[in-house]
C-alpha cells in the first residue's frame, strides 16, 4: 500500500483507499494515480500540493464523481462515490458561471423549488453577503471582475450546503492581490461554516497558508509522498518563523528526487 495518512480521525467525511487511475494515450498507458490513500475529517481543510501533471485534477475529478477510477474506493460519509452528488460541491479554476444569468440567478440556480421563491431569494441574499457581494445580485457575470466571479462560483456551491467543498486550483487564474483576498474569504467562510474543504494547488504558499494538512504528491505516477500537519493559528502570519520553516520543509520535500518506480 502507498502512504496512508489522516487515520487518527473519529469520523472521516471522505475516505480514499488504494485509489489508482490510468489513461490510454496513443495506445500507451499513462498511470496518472497509483495507490492513493487518505482520509479527511469533517471541518478539515486539506491541501493537495504537487507539480504539474502529478494527477491533482484527476484525483479531484474522481472525488467529485466526474471520473471513474480503476482500483480502490472513495467513500463519502461511509458511502461509495459512484458519480457527482450534491454533498460534494466543486469549484473550478475557471468560474464556469452561466453568462446569461445574473449573479443572483447563478447563485440560486441549484436551489430547489421546495424552498419557495422567498426562501430561495433569502438564501441567495445571505450567501451574497457571506462572500462580500451584497448589492451585486442583478449584475451579469460580464460586468464583474474575475475575483468577483470566483466569489459567485463559491457562493453557488456553498448555498447548497455541501458536506465537502472540492476546489481545483480555484485561485490560480487570479492576480496576487485578488488571490490574497480570496484566501481571506475562504478562511473566514471556513471559520463561520466549519466547511470541509479539499483543494488542489501547485502553489506551496497557498497550501501552507490555507490547509490544516498538506499532502505532497509525486509525479508519474501520482502518489502521496508525504503529509505535513499545519498547526498554526489562523489567519496565518506569512512572515512568522514557524510559517517560513514549514514552507522550507515542504519545499525541500517537493525538491527531493522522485523515488524509483515500483
Ligand atoms: N483525459 C485524459 N486522457 C489522457 N491522459 C490524461 C487525461 N487526464 C489526465 N491525463 C494525464 O494524467 C496525468 C495527470 O494529469 P492531471 O491533469 O490530473 O495533472 P495535474 O497535476 O492536475 O496537472 P496540472 O497542474 O498541470 O493541471 C498527466 O500525465 C495527464 O497527461
TrEMBL record:
Listed GO MF terms: ATP binding; ATP hydrolysis activity
Domain (ABC transporter): residue spans on this chain: 14-244
PROSITE patterns noted in UniProt: ABC_TRANSPORTER_1, ABC_TRANSPORTER_2
Keywords for this protein: ATP-binding, Nucleotide-binding, Transport
Domain of life of the source: Bacteria
Gene3D superfamilies: P-loop containing nucleotide triphosphate hydrolases
One of the Pfam families matching this protein, by short name: ABC_tran
Protein name, as recorded: ABC transporter ATP-binding protein
Organism: Desulfoferula mesophila
Amino acid at each position: 500500500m502507498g502512504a496512508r495518512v489522516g487515520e487518527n480521525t473519529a469520523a472521516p467525511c471522505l475516505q480514499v483507499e488504494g485509489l489508482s487511475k490510468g489513461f490510454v494515450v496513443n495506445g500507451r498507458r499513462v498511470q496518472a494515480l497509483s495507490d492513493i490513500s487518505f482520509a479527511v475529517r469533517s471541518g478539515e481543510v486539506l491541501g493537495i500540493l504537487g507539480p504539474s501533471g502529478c494527477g491533482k485534477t484527476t484525483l479531484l475529478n474522481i472525488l467529485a464523481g466526474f471520473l471513474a477510477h480503476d482500483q480502490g474506493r472513495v467513500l463519502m460519509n461511509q458511502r461509495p462515490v459512484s458519480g457527482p452528488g450534491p454533498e460534494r460541491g466543486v469549484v473550478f479554476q475557471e468560474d464556469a458561471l452561466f453568462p446569461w444569468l445574473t449573479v443572483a440567478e447563478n447563485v440560486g440556480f441549484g436551489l430547489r423549488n421546495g424552498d419557495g421563491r422567498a426562501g430561495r431569494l433569502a438564501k441567495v441574499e445571505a450567501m451574497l453577503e457571506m462572500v462580500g457581494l451584497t448589492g451585486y445580485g442583478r449584475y451579469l457575470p460580464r460586468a464583474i471582475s474575475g475575483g468577483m466571479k470566483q466569489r459567485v462560483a463559491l457562493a453557488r456551491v456553498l448555498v447548497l450546503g455541501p458536506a465537502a467543498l472540492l476546489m481545483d486550483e480555484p485561485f490560480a487564474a487570479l492576480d496576487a492581490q485578488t488571490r490574497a483576498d480570496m484566501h481571506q474569504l475562504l478562511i473566514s467562510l471556513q471559520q463561520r461554516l466549519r466547511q470541509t474543504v479539499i483543494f488542489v494547488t501547485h502553489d506551496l504558499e497557498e497550501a501552507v497558508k490555507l490547509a490544516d494538512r498538506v499532502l505532497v504528491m509525486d509525479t508519474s505516477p501520482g502518489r502521496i509522498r508525504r503529509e505535513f500537519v499545519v498547526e498554526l493559528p489562523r489567519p496565518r502570519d506569512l512572515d512568522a518563523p514557524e510559517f517560513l520553516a514549514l514552507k522550507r520543509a515542504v519545499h525541500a520535500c517537493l525538491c527531493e528526487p522522485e523515488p524509483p518506480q515500483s
